[in-house]
Amino acid sequence: MMSKAAEVTELQRCSVLDINVLADMYGDSSATTRVEVLTGFNAEAGRYVVQLQAAVTLLNMASVIAMSHSLKSMCGLIGAQQFAQLCMLLEQAGRDGHEQRLTDLSAQLQPCWQALQVAILFNSQVKGHTDG
Amino acid sequence: MANIVFIDDDPFVLTAYQRIMRHSGHQCYFLQQAELLWQQEYLADLHIVFTDQMMPGCSGTELLHRLQLQYPDIKRVLLSGDIEVVNRLAGSTLKIHDMLAKPFNKARLLHCIDAVITEKVG
User: Fold this and answer.
1) Nearest-CA neighbor of A76 among B103, B111, B44?
2) Which ipTM was obtained for this model?
3) What's the Cα-to-Cα distance from A6 to each of A2, A10, B64, B66, rounded to whole Å?
4) Distance (Å, rounded) from C-alpha B32 to C-alpha B34?
5) Tell me, what's the pLDDT at A132?
6) Rg (CA), chain B
7) Which of A84, B93, B114, B115 is positioned for an S-S bond with A75, CB 3.0–4.6 A?
């Protein structure tokens, strides 16, 4: 198991949002698809993050596992690698029933989510790829 | 053209499959609840069922096992972020035609469909 500091470093190494992954996933690099997908992700994932935060606070392991697993899948579809990595770690801590590790990791939840929000906002406005 | 159903409890993931399969030339259906599969009029005409593994109420392997018993001619593909699930299938009576590790891209999905239809896998 990695140390707390090593886990944070590992998270920081991950790309917050790799738009090339999104384009590859959907086989479409148009700005229209990118904006629609990111908008859809924001609406859906935001609700899951609120539920995940609550589950972590209550140490409801079943809910932590379910929410982090779903978020991990969703992040994989848009290239949100940092948040996907955090969700993977949270899911594993939940499966292991490791409360302290879960609490430690949860300190990264809001910073990582906010970083992703900023990246989504940026990529929803700037046309990095051509339509068509 | 194949008749294909995708089953996943996450609406965003299901919408992604819908978007990926647009203009694919296949007739696709999308279900958010595994149990609804048995009520679909198109069930007997399906060629492939793609299902997520981790779903509330009914896992993908449970669903595919029942499908194998009741509709053995329909091809079965499991979608999971946990590649270890394949190892756990060893020794099981469930036989799947392919497994896609999540996340997968459009090219991988279309290749899988082609391979399963032409029975290059399974």
Assistant:
1) B103
2) 0.83
3) 6, 6, 40, 44
4) 7
5) 43
6) 13
7) A84
pLDDT in tens, A14-47: 899 999 999 999 999 999 999 999 999 999 999 9
Residue A84: CB partners within 8 Å, gap ≥ 6?
A14, A71, A72, A75, A76
- The Cα–Cα gap between B86 and B96 comes to 9
Best residue of B6, B8, B10, B113 to probe chain A, by most A CBs closer than 10 Å: B10
Residue A60 neighbours by CB under 8 Å, 6+ apart: A54
Taking the C-alpha atoms of A37, B14, B100 and A85 in order, what is their torsion angle to the nearest 10 degrees?
50
Return the H-helix or E-strand segment holding B88.
helix B84-89
What CA–CA distance (Å, rounded) separates B22 from A66?
29
> How many residues can be counted in chain A?
132
pLDDT tens-digit map of B100-111: 999 899 999 999
Read off the tokens for B106.
Answer: 């459009």
Which residues in chain B touch residue A76, judged by CB atoms under 8 angstroms apart?
A: 81, 102-103
- Rounded to a whole number of angstroms, the distance from the CA of B90 to the nearest CA of chain A is 22
Which amino acid does the sequence have at A15?
S
Residue pair B35/B43 in contact (Cβ under 8 Å)? The answer is: no
Alpha-helical (H) ranges within A14-60 are 19-26, 31-57
Which 3-state string (H, E, C) describes B38-106?
HHCCCHHHCCEEEEECCCCCCCHHHHHHHHHHHCCCCEEEEEECCCHHHHHHCCCCCCCCEEEECCCCH
Report the C-alpha gap between B30 and A75 in whole angstroms: 20
